[in-house]
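User: Can you predict the 3D structure for this chain?
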Amino acid sequence: MAEPATTGRSTTTRRAFVTACGAAGLAAALAACGSDGDSSSSEPSKSGGAGDSTGGGGGAELAKTADIPEGGGKVFKDQKIVVTQPKAGEFKAFSSVCPHANNPVGDVSGGTINCPFHGSKFDITDGSVKAGPSTKPLPSAKIKVQGDTISIA
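Assistant: Here is the predicted structure, written as structure tokens:
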């Protein structure tokens, strides 16, 4: 039996090439969709409640209490923390990374922490989801309030 002649060309068929391109396109589309996956490596500490005003370790000063509006809050992009003041003298802190697609939240207004990328909204009192697409709340972050200073705990 004679062997087929080779011409030095690749033996990849058109069908194999189209299938490979389709698979690569599908993989790229799925990666772009994001997920509600956990991103604990980019979030502040989840280990306790926010607003802890008792001793303990100290961290960098974030703000003065007067800088956080009552019924609102402020996003600290570099520290990946958002600090809120749901009612006078009560301060809470959460990760500023939206759990939907790991984008930073944008602002605090209307009683919610708002993600500008896909429209998720989180309650300023407990970080719970007020509007999706996120299905997971913002994790709490530890802060320390001492006098008129708010710092990372």
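Residues 28-57 have pLDDT under 50 and may be disordered. DSSP finds one helix and ten strands in the chain.
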